[in-house]
Design goal:
This protein is α/β, with parallel strands linked by helices. The chain has helices at residues 4-11, 40-47, 87-91, 112-116, 118-128, 151-159, 178-225, and strands at 14-18, 27-33, 62-71, 74-83, 100-108, 133-139, 164-169.
């Protein structure tokens, strides 16, 4: 028996197209937040199919990367904003959150403070954004012997907030679940795009119907006056 998750996965084919940018495509913004040192930049490097860079430096303020993916027959352009791990900087940088479609909250499974600070990051996020999807990521899953935060705690945190749509653990070092993260980002944007297009078509039809009804009403009134 095929479950809903398997049906959804079989419904979409996601392909990474590379580090590209084109004005021909709508750009969807993704922001990644969390305490410094949790591996946000390393996750992005992995998302962009560049392996693992052990020498990558910490992000000072904000670093922006553009890349494209293909979901089924539609090309999606993603712009991912990598923030530094300073919550005061994030709190005083509203442009970081402006027009974001998806937010990724990251903690490290071997860093207690990074998990304890999640609520602070979540509250900053909610102050500026209201209707986006949030993914919760527990990174550094390869450091099993150093684990402090059990996966059940991440799941509980996710369940406490309705707009956190998904939680899973990753490893930027060995790539565990990075493809899963990329696929879910791409599919979420694809579904949002599909819904937006349907809503636009529905609104256009409703407007056309209203205009037609007004036109017919004017015709009926004109005929009545001339009778």
């Amino acid at each position: 028996m095929i479950n809903n998750k398997e049906e959804k996965e079989s419904k979409y084919k996601v392909e990474y197209l590379g580090e590209k940018y084109s004005q021909d495509f709508i750009t969807y913004k993704v922001i990644i937040l969390g305490l410094y040192g949790v591996g946000k930049t390393s996750i992005i490097i992995r998302l962009m199919k560049k392996g693992f860079d052990k020498d990558n430096s910490s992000t000072i303020s904000v670093d922006i990367k553009n890349f494209q993916v293909k979901v089924n027959d539609k090309i999606i352009q993603i712009q991912i904003w990598d923030s530094c791990g300073n919550d005061e900087f994030a709190e005083n940088t509203p442009n970081l959150f402006k027009n974001a479609s998806i937010a990724i909250l990251v903690y490290a499974i071997n860093d207690k403070k990074s998990f304890e600070d999640l609520e602070k990051w979540y509250n900053i996020l909610k102050e500026y954004c209201y209707d986006h999807k949030i993914f919760l990521i527990g990174n550094k899953n390869d450091l099993k012997e150093e684990r402090i935060i059990e996966s059940e705690k991440g799941e509980t945190f996710k369940n406490n907030y309705d707009n956190i749509k998904m939680f899973f653990e990753t490893s930027a070092l060995n790539g565990e679940n990075i493809d899963k993260l990329l696929e879910n980002i791409a599919i979420s944007i694809y579904e949002k795009n599909e819904n937006d297009e349907k809503n636009s078509e529905k609104a256009a039809k409703e407007l056309k119907s209203i205009q037609l009804n007004k036109k017919n009403h004017r015709k009926r009134r004109k005929k009545k006056c001339c009778f």
